[in-house]
Every structure is written in C-alpha cells, then in structure tokens.
Amino acid sequence: MKLRTPGMEFASEMIIKAAKLGLRMTEIPITFYPDRRDRPPHLRPWRDGWRHLKFMLMFSPSALFLIPGVGLLGIRLLLMCSQLLAPADAPLRSFGFQMDFHWAILGSLFTLVGYQVVSTHFQAKIYSVTHRFQEEDPFLREGFRILTLERVLLFGLIVALIGLAMDVNILLEWIRNQQGLFVSDQTRQAVFGSTLLALGIQTMLNAFFFSILGDGC
C-alpha cells in the first residue's frame, strides 16, 4: 500500500488507499476503555481534524480546485465577452440592465483567481503523483512531454507582451490627448491588457514551478 503519512492521518490513508486498490475491508468491533494515565491526551481535535481533511483533499484535487476554477473562468468568459460588445464610449445595455467597464474589472478578477485555482489543481495533482499518494497519471506524463518549460515560457512571454502592448498603446494615447480620465472603451482595453499581462507573468512563473514539481512524474 506504500503508506507514507507520519501522523494521525495514517488511519485515513489506510482506508483511502485500500479503497482505491480494491482491497477487502472488514470492521471488527472493539471495546474502547478510558485512558487512566495521568497525562493530557495526544489527540488535538482541530489540529488533527485539519490534518485528516487536508490529506483527504489531496486525493481529490479536481473537486477542491479544478471545478471551482473552471467555474470562475466560465463566469469570466461571459463578463469579458459582454464588454467586447459594448459601444466605445457608453455602457452596454441589455434587457434594461446597464453593464459598464466595472464588469470587465470583475471579469478580470475572476480570470486571475480562476486561472490560479486551476493551476493549483495541477500542482496538487503533480504533488500527489510524485509523493505516491496517487498512481501515475498518463495525462500528466503526456502534458509534460508536450508542454515543455521552454514552450510554456515562450507562450507566457507572448501573452504578457500582447497585454503590455495594449496598455502602452492606451497610455500613449492618453498622454497624446491629455485626457484627465479614460473613456469607457479605453478602460476596458486597459483591463484586458493588464489581465493578459498578469496571466502571461503567472504562466511563466508556473512553468518553472511545474518543471520543479514534475521531476518525479
């Protein structure tokens, strides 16, 4: 079973791995007597309970990270795309509801958070495989073969440069026209550009981290 945990979550690891391996489990009733030794108990409910929960979540990174992350990215897609349909200098009006550039800012927030949550899912997945909490995953192995460090770095750099170019273009236009405030369309473009810049930088940093984690995959 290759049990590895050092603490009280050892019992949970035995049950989880036995279930994953399809082993037969039998419950044997016992009599539990009070501890009559004059010392405080070793069990700490909150600390040990959290260790058990944390260990169990490591066996299900999809439920913990991937599903919420994809959900946030889906909401982001709706919000950002809706702003692409908006007039240049006015908010988008749909069914009597006004959607200004603030929705693009909210979409940017969901994009960055959702992207990080999805990235954390794969980090947890890789950690579980390399530390033998889960069996080897052919999907991860193929992913590391295709998405090499150099390729992901190049992709992240391109995304970051596109976002930077959008922001610099808006800044130059703002300086040239000596505008006190961005109009709605400029603000949307600035949000899109800043989001791409942040995603590109995150992608490059994650590429290094994935490369370090994936040595044992």
Characterize this entry briefly:
With 217 residues, this protein is mainly alpha-helical.
Q: How is this fold's topology laid out?
A:
Blueprint: H1 10-20, H2 45-58, H3 61-84, E1 92-94, E2 97-99, H4 102-130, H5 138-146, H6 149-177, H7 184-213
Antiparallel strand pairs: 1-2
Helix pairs in contact: 3-4, 4-7, 6-7
Mean pLDDT: 77
Number of helical regions? 7
Strand order of the largest sheet: 1-2
Pairing-aware structural class of the strands and helices?
mainly alpha
What is the number of E strands? 2
What string gives the helices and strands in order?
Answer: HHHEEHHHH
Distance between the termini: 19 Å
How many structural domains does the protein architecture include?
2
Contiguous low-pLDDT stretches (5 residues minimum) are none
Report strand %.
under 5%
- Cα shape: elongated
- Tell me the Rg in angstroms: 25 Å
Question: Main β-sheet: number of strands, strand sense, barrel status?
Answer: 2 strands, antiparallel
Helix content: 55-70%
Describe the structure.
- This protein is an all-alpha fold and 217 residues long.
- The protein folds into two domains: 1-30 and 48-59, no CATH class; 60-216.
- The protein contains seven helices and two strands; from the N terminus they run αααββαααα.
- It has helices at 10-20, 45-58, 61-84, 102-130, 138-146, 149-177, 184-213, and strands spanning 92-94, 97-99.
- A two-stranded antiparallel sheet has the order 1-2.
- A hairpin with a 2-residue loop joins strand 1 (92-94) and strand 2.
- The longest helix has 30 residues, at 184-213.
